[in-house]
Backbone:
């Protein structure tokens, strides 16, 4: 009954991001944005985070949409809903 407002990707198992992966995530982000859905990441390791930064995806998603833990991502979502 409630529309999806945000998707939180638990990224701890993602080791790297190549150009085709970055392209796919960028396309997904565009589709989400057109539907009013935010994209966030939790537990992205340093190597992945650097790859996301190099691809320009972090700038598109927003650096404030990356969380140290899933719990912190959920807490941020709940705070934004108030």
Residues:
């Amino acid at each position: 009954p409630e529309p999806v407002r945000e998707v939180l990707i638990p990224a701890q198992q993602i080791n790297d991001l190549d150009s085709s992966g970055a392209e796919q995530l960028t396309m997904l982000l565009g589709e989400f944005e057109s539907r009013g859905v935010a994209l966030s990441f939790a537990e992205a390791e340093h190597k992945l985070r650097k790859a996301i930064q190099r691809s320009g995806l972090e700038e598109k998603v927003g650096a404030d949409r990356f969380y140290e833990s899933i719990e912190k991502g959920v807490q941020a979502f709940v705070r934004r809903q108030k």
In short: The chain has four helices and three strands. The mean pLDDT is 94.
